[in-house]
Amino acid sequence: MHLNISQQMKMSQQMKLAPKMIQSMEILQLPLLALQERIDQELVDNIVLENVKGEGETAESDAAVEDTSPTEESPVNEVEQAELVVDAESNNEADFERLVEIAADWPEDNIGAGSRVSSNRMDEATDRQHDLMANMVTRPQSLHEYLLEQFGFFNVDESVRQFGEYLIQNLDHNGRLQSSLPEIVQVFGRSISLDVAQETLGLIQRLEPSGVGARNYRECLMLQLKPQTPFRDVLATLITEHLEDVGSNRLPVIQRKTGLPIELIKAAIAELKNLNPYPGRGFEMRPVQRVTPDLSVQRDEINGYIVKLEDEYVPELRISRHYQAMLRSDPSSKTRDYIKQKVESAKWLIESIESRYSTLRKVAQAIVDHQSEFLDNGPEFIVPLKMQQIADVVGVHVTTVSRAVDAKWIQTPRGLFPLKRFFGGGTQTATGEEVAWDIIRIRLQEIVDKEDKHKPLSDDALVERLAAAGYKLARRTVTKYRKNMNIPSSRQRREY
């Protein structure tokens, strides 16, 4: 075995992003609400940052600071620039006096000294808590709570009650059993026969909403059939034997197998559509996502469409003059290093936010200029647009454009749209003109809406109709867009 110890030199290139650049890209990608949260967190973490818009109580301190100014002999570097000089000792004394006043307002601090909280103040605090609880948004009743409340009215044995409550907890959000009944009985672990379990499940299936406790799709629909349901016998036949034929719109097959007339089958299918295959979904609580536009577009008769940033509620930041002045007045090296670090971090954040505003405005303005016909005349006038085109106009990398438009919304005269809505590919017409895919989707929907439903157009026929309109597309392309638009096949669209 030969060991060789030697030194070698190797040249290589590595791209490393500076922390400032990473922060700038993160700030650019944040939507408006996330940017507000980020700034609020920075205001808490960084003591040298100040919110200019929310400034109220600091006005007097700023006025007091303006009374003094730095002498010409004192050296000031870029980080330590300050327009005003603050007397550290007087500020410390004022802070101490404010702390004393605050302590006097808190009765809890004096409890140890023998003082007691007045009953009036306790009553006021209690009233405030009651008002807060009264104004809280109440949680809607869940499916399981609703079923347990109904199941409690049954007069059954304790063992049946416990198993019934266990069964209810095993229902999914659609109201169906998540496992087979024998498996649930086995996992339940207590002595209960399968017959008793089946009877208990039957009690649960009598609860509202109709269809809960079903073990499959067909049983869920059958549970919703009542004696007064129109075409009940025909519906039972369709659900148990011909559900796939109904989904594929094979009415002649159903007619041939059942001997029922087409008109009766169509009437039963219309009634079948009134049944709910997911009875438990009405109890789901889905939060409504609030969309806040990052930009808005206004029409100018001279300059056309002008993009404006919606930054009304975004805090305006600046570096505290007090801590800038402390860089000179405090001789402690640890304090100076700490403040310098915070000042540098604050500068990075402010510069990143300003860079975000500038980039976002330029990108959005370039998009609006390119899609002005869309804003003038509607979605059918949108033109193909790629992010690389906007990157070339603005003079940035295409990844910067991608970050700038990500999760950003713009308020236009035609409504609220995500910025990504204005991007999309396209194809060429027979005359060589570029046309966006959105326009082809619109034309495809128009052709389907105007077709004869008794003889619907196949995908090959749709290709021919689009070609006649000047859009030459492959059949697989038309099929893909038809499925993406949730347009059924020609057999499913046929009316008998």
Short synopsis of the structure:
The chain has 496 residues and is α+β, with helices and mostly antiparallel strands.
Indicate the topology:
Blueprint: H1 19-29, H2 32-45, E1 49-51, H3 58-65, H4 88-105, H5 119-134, H6 143-151, H7 158-169, H8 181-188, H9 194-204, H10 217-223, H11 232-241, H12 243-247, H13 251-258, H14 262-272, E2 295-300, E3 304-309, E4 317-319, H15 321-329, H16 333-370, H17 372-377, H18 387-394, H19 398-405, E5 409-412, E6 415-418, E7 426-428, E8 434-436, H20 437-450, H21 459-468, H22 475-484, H23 490-493
Parallel strand pairs: 2-5
Antiparallel strand pairs: 1-4, 2-3, 5-6, 7-8
Would you mind describing this structure in some detail?
The chain is an alpha+beta fold. Among the domains are: 231-273; 426-493, Homeodomain-like (Arc Repressor Mutant, subunit A). The protein is built from 23 helices and eight strands. Strands 3-2-5-6 form a four-stranded mixed sheet. The protein has a two-stranded antiparallel sheet with strand order 1-4. Strands 7-8 form a two-stranded antiparallel ribbon. The chain is extended and about 95 Å long. The chain starts with 18 loop residues before the first helix and ends with a helix.
